[in-house]
Amino acid sequence: MLCERPKNSKRLVVMIASEAKALLFDLGGVVIETDFDQALRAWQPLSRLTFHQLQTAFRHDLFYQRFERGEIASAVYCDHL
Q1: Up-side HSE of residue 4: CA atoms within 13 Å toward CB?
Q2: How many beta carbons lie within 10 A of that of residue 72, not counting itself?
Q3: pLDDT digits (tens, 9 = 90+) for 22-40
Q4: pLDDT per residue over 53-79, tens digit each?
Q5: Which of 63, 65, 56 lies closest to 77, judged by CA?
Q6: CA–CA separation, 25 vs 46, rounded Å?
Q7: If DSSP states are collapsed to H, E and C, what string results for 12-79?
């Protein structure tokens, strides 16, 4: 499931897997460790945000942690975003 908020919109668009062009399997550090700062440094030149702003936007807050543990539904997490 992909959550996306179109520019200048309060509406949240949720894409189901059958519409997706690619699938990303997050192995959660079990098989591979993800360096999030490295990913943000790669994204930063493509963004209007600074590296620090990207770090703030993609922080692992309480909602993220609860979603990762399966304590809240994806719709609740998407609404938080």
Answers
A1: 9
A2: 17
A3: 776 766 666 677 788 999 9
A4: 999 888 888 998 898 888 999 889 888
A5: 63
A6: 23
A7: CEEECHHHCCCCCCCCCCCCCCCCHHHHHHHHHHHCCCCHHHHHHHCCCCHHHHHHHCCCCCHHHHHH
